[in-house]
Amino acid sequence: MDRPQVDMAIVGAGFAGLYMLHMARQRGLTAQVVEAGGDVGGTWYWNRYPGARCDVESMEYSFGFDDDLQQEWEWTERYAPQPEILRYANHVADRFDLRRDIRFDTRVTAATYDDESGHWTVTTDRGPVITARYVVMATGCLSTANIPDIPGAATFTGPTYHTGRWPHEGVDFTGQRVGVIGTGSSAVQSIPLIAEQADHLTVFQRTPTYAVPAWNRPLDPVEQKEIKADYAALRAANRQSSSAFGGLQPRNDVSALAVSDEERHAEYERRWAVGGLTFLGAYNDLLLVRAANETARQFVIGKLHEIVEDPEVAAKLTPDQVVGCKRLCVDTGYWATFNRPNVTLVDLRETPIEAITERGIRTTGAEHELDAIVYATGFDAMTGALARIDIRGRGGRPLADAWSAGPRTYLGLMVAGFPNLFTITGPGSPSVLTNMIESIQQHVEWIGRCLADLGAAGATTIEATPEAQDAWVDYVNSVAGFTLFPTCNSWYLGANVPGKTRVFMPLPGFPTYVQQCEDIVADGYRGFTRA
Fold it and tell me: What pTM does this model have?
């Protein structure tokens, strides 16, 4: 045990794991990646449901660490579809010769720190254990499927699918009666396409969702060339955005309440015509002040009622929470799908699901006979993948114990009592409130510099102090409390997973966070112990 097999073990071969492997090599470190899937891509390897695509524009949802890479790759659509993003991940892996250090079809089951040697032992479900000085959890924020525990689910005689674990060969719903449970992002993207194919589609909705149009289109080569001519400016603008994207449509730094009704309506119309998540950038206080948010909410609801022809259906589709406290959905024809004669909406607030039967789904109102069921029920976000690994730090303490009252980290990067264990885009960092690739890059680069500085200082371990961690958790909670994010039951809080502790996990405000990370480094890694 005097010398570990590798300097770094990396769990996951999505964008975070790929860049971390590349960074480790640049720093002269040996590394081994372990990936449960059969190839690279992470969330884009698993999520192959109909209509799956990114909700951040492709020119922004891409790596910026290598100019040759960003210049040579040609995107074909404004919002890249899943197959294209997966091809991009494969291109990155091939371009930097990353596959030779990735062990595929292998799931990490445990990671244990040895106090005496200062090494981690990583155990998998196949192959030998890995010993490493550092462990990086690049497990993704949306990687663990959440399947609801509905009585009778095992009795259904037809096929069932989860949008996050879609068959690679695809699914043909032609002539079938299909039920979709859930109306989050994956449902919003897949429902219009399933409705076109199925004989009849029944949508089981618990909580209505807001949606803004994508207005997706082929990406004009001239437009792409213009962006690439000054890509650095776009990347810099994104780094100054609270969401790490939107450089193509910057936020309007004015209060929604400081302008006339006519001016505000015109701005909302303009943003709606542009499409995408930057709708919430119409004004600077839409996620801070309820009265400001209400102006945007009423505008979106007005659009919903213009699109949906049946007033009763439109009423059932109308959300009652603030707009944006849950991840805003970017859609292509979602609300219009409910005008189709072969689509039925079941409001589970009126008639909850009692059970799944051999023939379909029984609610308190009726039994709906189905040939197939799709669970569009999302993920155990941010902590789910980590919770499924038996992670033990100093003294054999399980991470499950350390997080029994909710996840606690310092900067979303490290956990007190777990030396040399890093969590890319972990809870307590901006992560899911941002363009994930920008947040991934910032974390990977911070870790790379941290380890270089560690070696330069003649140290071999780094660990967050309990005091710094406690202060950081309090800070994250206080920042969230200034916003409207915690006002609704979202997966940001873990509210979609029964029994999960309700804690607002991400930190709003990307540029401030990045500066805090820089200040901590400049102050000799304040809040960390190095030895």
Answer: 0.96
